[in-house]
Amino acid sequence: MKVAYLYQRGSVIEMVKKAGLSIASLLCLLTLASDAQYRNASRDAIEQPEKVMEAVGVKPGMLIGEIGAGHGYFTFWLAKGVGETGKVYANDIDKSALAAIERRRASESVPNIETVLGTVDDPCLPAGALDMVFVVNAFHDLERPVELLANLLPALKPGTTVVVMDRDHERTPDSEGHFLTRAEVEEIVGRSVFEMVRVETFLRYHNLYILTARK
Predict the structure, then answer these.
(1) Which of 63, 44, 24, 31 lies closest to 157, judged by CA?
(2) The CATH number of the domain where 169 resides is what?
(3) What is the spatial distance between Cα 214 and Cα 158, in angstroms, rounded to a whole number?
(4) Which of 184, 183, 190, 186 is nearest to 214 (CA)?
């Protein structure tokens, strides 16, 4: 539709020149956008965010924390899942990653996302606020997972579910030891203030580890 608009207004080339872009720059930007769309479509098929949210009970109005949100792939799915009456607190220790989320939040007008800068052992999420927490493709990279889980506890409402979605080393080709086995995740959780309630295995490469605080 934007392309059609450009044609209606005049030559695309003239418009690009007026914007101070070379044709090569325009082609590069279009290629990057196309590649990003392809990568997201491929990731959608592998990670099935809508199915994941349905499986763990994401509902409109929820306040959800996401630890290790990165550039926000899952964050924006969660924001859609909780709707206008809910909110997603996107945590990371990387300021540039959070800045990327903030730019996309502004460009797509998604008001129900708030970024939170944390540390390696404390996500710094709001106290007593969260109905659910996600850790998507980040658990295997946590430097101090047991300590971080302990510092997460004050942010949870009673009975809050923590969803750890991580690739299973035994089901991930060419992982070269980067990802954790199910047994390794269970061992880490066993040393923490949480207990594992169940494990969902319907995704091709990932496990969903469902945790709750120990009583």
Answers:
(1) 63
(2) 3.40.50.150
(3) 11
(4) 190
Q: Which domain holds residue 57?
A: 48-213
Dump pLDDT digits (tens) for 95-111.
Answer: 999 999 999 999 999 99
Do 53 and 149 lie in one domain? The reply is yes
Is the domain of 17 the same as that of 85?
no
Provide the token pair at 183: 């047994």
| Whole-number pLDDT of residue 172 | 87
Distance between CA atoms of 130 and 211, rounded to whole angstroms? 14
| Neighbouring C-beta atoms of residue 38, cutoff 10 Å | 10
Average pLDDT on 110-125 reads: 99
Alpha helices, H only, the chain: 2-9, 12-18, 23-47, 49-56, 73-82, 95-108, 145-152, 182-190
How many structural domains does the chain have? Answer: 2
Are 60 and 76 in a shared domain? yes
Phi, psi of 35 (to 5 degrees): -60, -40
- Residue 36: which pLDDT band, with cuts at 50, 70 and 90? very low
